[in-house]
Design brief:
Thiol Ester Dehydrase, Chain A
Amino acid sequence: MLGIKEIEEIIPHRHPFLLVDCIEELEPGIRAVGYKCVTFHEDFFRGHFPQEPVMPGVLIIEALAQVGAVAVLSLEENKGKTAYFGAINNARFRKKVCPGHKLRLECEIIKGKGPVGIGKAVASVGDEIAVTAELTFVTG
């Protein structure tokens, strides 16, 4: 299992934009599974929405991309690089993510050629899928 310090050695994101608390499973270049424990103290809940706090969908997508970046950038040939968004396709938002939820983030790399790849990403809370998307990334 990778904690915050190990994750920070792989990807450049830092608080408050590091949206992954730990990586539970890692197959470099193939897939990673991580978690975000969503608390009421997240900065974005002050404005989204004060009366009913909901984690913004774009931040769930970003958290999924960070897990995918851990998978890609943990390969020896990608150490020290950054993974950038190339595209977000077929994103579907199915369940609200709220304070108290433990968000499971999984990204499987399904295609790759040179610096470009595609990840199949799924975020879930318990047995319920919250978000699915296909994420294209470019390393550089």
